[in-house]
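Support case: user asked for a sample of complex input and structure output to validate their parser. Sending the pair below.
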Amino acid sequence: MEQTLFYILAGVAVIGTILAITEKHPVHAILYLVTSLFSIAVIFYLLMAPLVAAFEVILYAGAIMVLFLFVIMMLDLGHPEKGVSPHWREWLPALALVGVSAACLAIVIVARHGSTASPAAASLPIREVARHLFQDHGLAVELISLQLLFALVGALYLGRQK
Amino acid sequence: MIVPLEHILLLDGLLFFLGMGGLLAWRANLIMMLVCIEVMLNAVMLAFVGGSARWGSADGQLFAIFIMALTSAEVSLALAMVVYLHRRRKTVDTDQFSEMKG
């Protein structure tokens, strides 16, 4: 049951991403990407990470994608006929790179292990995750908060009107 | 662990390479370049969470959360820069920004 769900969600994520990066209209591309992000969020939930799944929906699909849509609408970029979209010839080197890289990855993974199901690890309660976060990675939390402050100041500086 | 780790790694490798190919193909459009970078970062998060589920350790989930915070900072700065560049040249075509002005 969960296995079938995982493979369906993986297919939805890959197809959504392909549609997102080949779509000429930026708003449609963002909406396809939101579909892909939702399915990845459910994959996170299946992988026993409910906290990351919730953050994926709230932060990624909620905040960041809305920020993209907001900038596209503010700058009036939703006209694909005016915008620059790649010619089909520009896709060829990208397709070659994707094909070679994916084939190399598949060969390495298949050569290292057979596809045997690994033993189940114990699921982590959120209390345990939070204890690890604030006890073992306290410095990283402080650095992330500093980084968000720098991003705020930088965005204010770049966005001010002369 | 519902599926073998190799299948999760294959999925996120595929997503990462799709983002990389999209970044190469869309190198003339700033907004779509940022979208492709989002796809790549999301694939890396999937790798961390898969490793966390495989070995039962919380560190993978924590690094996924750190990547998410990093991404929000990066996107806010990058989109502010896109707005700034659009104000200067009225376009998001990267080929138009080929010269510097002191």
